[in-house]
Amino acid sequence: NYVITTPRKWTTGETVQVCIFVSDPSSSENSINIELKADNSEEPIIPWRIIQLPPGRTEFCDKVLVPSVTYRNAKLQIKGTLGGEKISYNKDITLATGVAKTFIQTDKFLYKPGQEVQFRMLTVNGPFLKISTEQYPLIWVETPSGSRIVQWNNVENLSGLIHRSFTLSEEPEEGTYKIGVRPMGNADQVYRTFKVEEYTLPRFEVTVKPPKYILGTDTEFSFTVCAKYTYGQPVKGNLTFELDNGGWGSSKKTITLNRQISGCMDVPILADDIQMNGDDYFVYSVSAKATVEEDGTGEVFSGKARADVDRTALKFESVSREEYMKPNVPFTGK
């Protein structure tokens, strides 16, 4: 005559539904009282509360707020009258802590001494990813040796997203730093790492541009190599260009060319020089590496590229055609 439903697991700090269903709503009394009590405690987690089925209704669900407690197991006691029958039950309930995820994002991963480190922080709760506006009891930054260099206590979080920053010293400890946060409640501490080290940007860059396509019938093709400073001016130096046909054993062929370069230049390659169409091996891809040594400084930088060799010059694709072919009637397609 009746059914009572509720999840076996209740999440602390969130609401849960307790629902009652009856087959005959004409009964004079359809209501239950529920109480939630921890296994080893006399004080109830949720004191007795009544759930009343409205007159004429066959079903009703009541939302119950579960307090934030540390208990993991509890008993749900149910007493009352449904469908004209008196009921009394004790059911085991598992209490789970709410699912929370905290994200920390820095403006970059690698910093130089004396630079400003900026980061932001966001916490979401529950299966619907509700943004938390609870304060953070503690946020701190640790050096690679474990010393705290910055700390914030009881950080307000009214908007849900907080921003913090600090400036590194001119001679900081180099290595991997940690940003730590202790969220509210019993959530685990969360960390985000970044690195601090002295570094210099490369003086110039080497790029290798492969041909748009290489056909198996081509006798010659070219790669384009460029060596430019970070501000765009051409680099003068010695170019070493290596090309590998991707073969193995006796079919493997690698050629090395040396040229003087000033900015960009095309490097022509003869197909026969890499045995692109051998007696027992066809090349289907080639790999190129260009190394440039700058005149005067001897600094060396490299770039790589790969190109496929197409063995089919033309490819046809049917995009539309007549559905049926009829004898002695022209058939058209596209």
The domain tally reads 3
Order of helices and strands: EEEEEEEEEEEEEEEEEEEEEEEEE
Strand tally: 25
Residues in helices, as a percent range: under 10%
Class based on secondary structure composition and strand pairing: mainly beta
Whole-Å distance between the termini? 69 Å
CATH C-level class of the largest domain: Mainly Beta
CATH topology assignment of the largest domain: Immunoglobulin-like
Described by the principal axes of the CA atoms, the overall outline is flat
Pfam families: MG2 (PF01835), MG3 (PF17791)
Keywords: Glycoprotein, Signal
Function: Binds covalently through a thioester bond to the pathogen surface resulting in pathogen clearance.
GO molecular function: endopeptidase inhibitor activity
Describe the structure.
The protein has 334 residues and is an all-beta fold. It has three domains: 2-96, Macroglobulin (MG2) domain (Immunoglobulin-like, Sandwich), CATH 2.60.40.1930; 100-196, Immunoglobulin-like (Sandwich); 204-310, Immunoglobulins (Immunoglobulin-like, Sandwich), CATH 2.60.40.10. The chain has strands at residues 2-5, 9-11, 15-22, 31-38, 44-52, 59-65, 73-82, 85-96, 100-106, 110-111, 116-125, 130-131, 136-142, 148-155, 161-167, 175-182, 190-196, 204-209, 214-215, 220-229, 236-244, 254-262, 264-270, 285-294, 300-310. A hairpin with a 7-residue loop joins strand 16 and strand 17. The two termini are 69 Å apart.
